[in-house]
Amino acid sequence: MKIFVPASSGADSSYLLYRVLSDYDGEVVARIMRCDATTEDMENVRHVHAWLKSNVRDFDFGMGSSLHIKKYLGWTYRLGFYE
User: Fold this and answer.
1) How far apart are CA 25 and CA 46, in angstroms?
2) pLDDT tens track for 4-42
3) What residue numbers bound the domain in which 36 lies?
């Protein structure tokens, strides 16, 4: 099972990612879908995700687009809902 986690640079999505990695066995794909974070925020995200990969388990992380939701889940969503 693949699990898609739309992420941001915030604590809530970092915690969600931690819980998904800890509680589920599927392949986890995490993507930052919309980035309005500062350079400092993004550096913190890199540290958090490096820690998760080292201390919890490996996962696929990167910048994303609406195509990731369609590819991994087969879902569509309204981009305007997030803006």
Assistant:
1) 23
2) 888 877 888 889 999 999 999 989 988 886 666 678 877
3) 2-82
User: Per the structure, how many domains does the chain have?
Assistant: 1
Neighbour count for residue 7 (Cβ, 10 Å): 23
Write the CB contacts of 48 (distance below 8 Å, at least 6 apart in sequence): 14
Q: How far apart are CA 79 and CA 64, in angstroms?
A: 13
Which has the closest alpha carbon to 6: 55, 77, 54, 58?
77
pTM of the model: 0.71
CB-based contacts of 59, cutoff 8 Å, min separation 6? 17, 21, 27, 28, 29, 30, 52, 53
d(CA 59, CA 80): 28
Cβ atoms of 35 and 3 within 8 Å: the answer is no
Question: Residue 46 carries which side chain, given as an amino acid letter?
Answer: R
Tokens 């993507």 belong to residue:
31
